[in-house]
Amino acid sequence: MKLAALILGSLLTTTAFAGPVLTLGTTSLLDSKDVDTLKLGPCLPGKHNKKVVAFKLKVFSKGAEVDSVKLTFFGGGKQKLKMREFFAPGTSSRWINLKGGARCIRKIVIKGDSETLINSNLPMFQSKIKFLGLK
Q1: CB of 132 within 8 A of CB of 24?
Q2: Which pLDDT belongs to residue 118?
Q3: For the chain, which ranges sit under pLDDT 50?
Q4: CB 3.0 to 4.6 Å from 67: which of 16, 106, 111, 125, for a disulfide?
Q5: From CA 33, how far away is CA 16, in angstroms rounded?
C-alpha cells in the first residue's frame, strides 16, 4: 500500500510541473534530401500559436532521417539544431529546450528525407512530421 502511494505521488509530482502540450504544426519530407518550412502565426491571445519552453518532433507514416531543424522566433533570434538522427514511424525526439526560456516560434525549417527505396515506377513517399510544443 505504501509502495502504491509512493509511486502515485511521484507520478503526480512529475506531471504537475509539465505544461500542456500544443501541436505547432505538421509538415512532410520527401524521398530525396528535402527542406520544408512550417510558418506559424503570431502569438496573440486566443490564437493557435503560443509561447513554448521546449519542442519535439514526432514522425508518422514513413521513417525519416532528420539532418537539422532551424527555429526562428518572433522578436528576433534563431536556434539551429544538427540532429542527424533516424526516427522510425511512431517515434519522436526528446523534448528540446528553447534558448531564452518561453518563446514564440515564427518559423520551423526542417532538413532531411523520408526512408524509402527509390523506384521510378512508384510515386514519391513522404514522412509526415508533427511538431509539438511544451507550454
Answers
A1: yes
A2: 55
A3: 1-17, 120
A4: 111
A5: 40
